[in-house]
Amino acid sequence: MASQKQAAAVADSPPAKIPAPSSAAAGDSLPFVYRIFFFLIEPISALVGAYFAHFRQSTYLSLTHAESTPLPIPLGTTIAMSQLANLYLFFAINEALVLRSTSDLRVWKTVLFCLLIGDLGHLYTVRELGLPIYWSVSKWNAIDWGNIPFVYLGAAMRIAFLADVGLGVKRRKTRRRTA
Q1: Residue 76's Cα: distance from chain center in Å?
Q2: Could you give phi then psi for residue 35, rounded to 5 degrees?
């Protein structure tokens, strides 16, 4: 019965906010590294990916895997590349605009958790290039730098945020149930 009351109290509590002065805009009190990365660096990099996936498809495909790049690019591949570009655009908009629109920590964590799943999926997609793609720095080209270490960085930033690193959020102590 007590745990039901505690659950109801938590459900009725107001959403946690990112610590900020009352006059601050969403995200103003976040550590600088989070603001610069989530509001600027990563959205711009996603826009660059969108540009190449839509407007420079042969370059994008060649940098991904030169030996299998079809020339001319088949219509189905062109459509799929433009859809990929659209997803990069969606990623950039979500991060740059949705996160700016709220200081609700639950919204931030939900969005960043979803993007973390995307990071893991993105890393999984290059597995067909062989396991060394994940650590062979000397063999990376421009697109590999975006697909591997930059995605590692994004995932690390999201994991740090989800773990409240640098947020000044105090974790609630949970009581263990005794049998």
Answers
A1: 27
A2: -60, -50
pTM, rounded to two decimals: 0.78
- Quickly tell me which residue has 């930033």 as its tokens: 157
**162 burial level (CB within 10 Å; 0-12, 13-18, 19+):** middle
Query: What is the spatial distance between Cα 85 and Cα 45, in angstroms, rounded to a whole number?
Result: 12
CB 107 within 8 A of CB 153: no
Q: How confident is the model at residue 14 (pLDDT cuts 50, 70, 90)?
A: low
| C-alpha–C-alpha distance, residues 31 and 50, integer Å | 28
Q: What are the residue ranges spanned by the domains of the chain?
A: 29-162
Tokens representing 38 are 């989530």
Number of H helices, E strands in the chain: 8, 0
pLDDT in tens, 134-155: 999 999 999 999 999 999 999 9
Cβ atoms 102, 151 nearer than 8 A:
no
- Cα–Cα distance between 16 and 38 in angstroms, integer? 19
* Cα angle value 168/152/25 (rounded, 5°): 35
